[in-house]
């Protein structure tokens, strides 16, 4: 089992280590940053569009 | 800067005491160390600060502190009002908590910043501020509670994920209800389809209506005629039956009259015959020769009245009459032929003749006796033979009576008994009832039929009339062959067919209504969509749907999967076989706790924790030392525990207050102050207060 150990003491890093999915990680990051839901939707949709 | 004021009104039974801040200054630096004796107000200050910042609803708080807060605000013996104001390092934010009314429980929390004034609910407050208020009692045990931070984060972010999920769901729904060319195209297609269905339905209804009209015309016309005819036939039958009944009743009456009249005559005759019969019986007893008297026994046994029931006489009667007549005639002949009888007869005849001449004074020649004298002599001779003559008279009389009886018998046998015999069956009581009864039952049946027929006729008459009474020719001409299959249908079959068509038509009408509603709704929706602006994520619906799926998975992980793993850590469940996911979760969380604990002093050396295994109760250090939690000193454990509390992982502003840190020496407290300062410099610490019990009041500011 390969685990990305938490190097820094942050909840964001904790979830970053726990979650495997890129989108899930991104969602948690934005939530922890205290972004409003509408803002998060905006960021995620734009980021997906950019990827495409 | 911390500024505060409070007033506590306490009822101590004999007096009401007022408590106000007096020993501890009402203005303090953001990082402050306070020591003092009991009742100096140091814990009250911390409690009021905690009360002001939703401490009562803080789930991470030590339960002992919860009790103190409750006692302060909810005791019946004391009332409280307060106001606290905390200003951050650069003065850009002021947080004010106020309970202005001593009698009301409302606490108002406001934040004043360059963005303006803002009030907080508990959720919004906890989103921005992190209240850490603790008494580090039983520190070794409570090191384990560092995991509450993870639990709190999982719950809080789980809630946030849920809200985000709802936002995405709403956005998707908004897109669907916004102007969407594809949806417009789809709706237009549905609308066209619906219009086609509407037309088909209308045509079907029209066809059914035509079919129904013709079938109704035909059925009503046909059964109007049929029932009219039936009605007339039944009425006629009923009339005939009534006549027949009257006729029957008359006949019965007539037959009854004849019968009873004959019976009456027969009864009278027999009554007369009975007198004669009895007379004959008596006479026979006188005139029968002794050797024939045994025949009287037969005579006496004869019952004339029985003939009224049998309508014939006992055969013995006629035989007896014949027999007696013969015997009597023979006897009379015998007597009449005797000398004595002849002599008596002659005397009698002479007396009769000479009786006419009694007035003559003439002597009868040869006798020399007058007529009178001769008559006397004759009388004497006749007297001598009188019994013989009497017997002859009696025999004659009996014979006459027998003859009378025979004539009566003959009359009854010839005239009355045959008539009675003939009429008797008709005047029988049962027969009479049966005859009239049968007619009545039949009449009743017919009346029922008539009523039924009348009802049906009235129904068809009304229906036919409503259809304007078309002739069968007109109906057939309109039907154009459609009726061919129905000519062989019975009434029930035709009415069943009418009902079927009606039902089918009603269903079609309902379908049409439903299609019409659908059509109206579709056109309304289409109009509405056409009038709308496209949603800004109009073309992103797939991305959003994908995002929604991810959020669902994340939601499930936080609320179920991770929550279960965490519960097992809290319970220190050492399962023999745990999933790879749970192993990973434990490793990550234990490493997170190690980082959270950071540097700590154990015995005489400082270590850096890299992992805290809460199930085994072990701290793994960077220095490769593995320390058992149970081996740590109390003051050091307290220090490690408080450091852990301060090593928060989120970006929220911290309000930290530690009470009763009596077991900690300066060396143990130093890492706490260092952490306070670091956080304060980073702008993440709003206040940091440590309180300890001592003999004298001492206030130390830990910042310049």
In short:
With 52 residues, chain A is an all-alpha fold. Helix content of chain A is 65%, strand content 0%.
What does the main sheet of chain A amount to? none
For the secondary structure, the number of strands of chain A is 0
Total helical segments of chain A = 3
Tell me the overall shape of chain A.
flat
The structure class of chain B reads: alpha+beta
For the largest beta-sheet of chain B, the strand count, sense and barrel status come to: 7 strands, antiparallel
What is the straight-line distance between the termini of chain A?
A: 32 Å
Oligomeric state of the chains present here:
heterodimer
Amount of helix of chain B:
55-70%
The backbone outline of chain B, from C-alpha atoms, is elongated
| N to C succession of SSEs of chain A | HHH
- Low-confidence parts of chain B, pLDDT < 50 over ≥5 residues? none
Number of alpha- plus pi-helical segments of chain B: 19
Low-pLDDT segments of chain A: 1-8
- Structural class designation of chain A: mainly alpha
Primary descriptors:
heterodimer, A: 52 residues, 3 helices, disordered N terminus, B: 704 residues, alpha+beta, seven-stranded antiparallel sheet, five-stranded mixed sheet, 19 helices, 62% helix, elongated
Structural description of this entry:
The complex is a heterodimer of chains A (52) and B (704). In chain A, 65% of the residues lie in helices and 0% in strands. Chain A is an all-alpha fold and 52 residues long. Chain A is flat and about 30 Å long. Residues 1-8 of chain A have low confidence and may be disordered. Chain B has 704 residues and is of the alpha+beta class. Classes of the chains: A mainly alpha (52), B alpha+beta (704). Chain A binds chain B through residues 1, 3, 5-15, 17-19, 21, 23-24, 27-28, 31-34, 37-38, 40-41, 44-45, 48-49, and chain B through 127-128, 149-150, 153, 157, 160-161, 163-164, 166-168, 171, 537, 540, 543-544, 546-547, 550-551, 553-554, 557, 562, 580, 583-585, 587-589, 591-592, 595-596, 598, 647, 649-651.
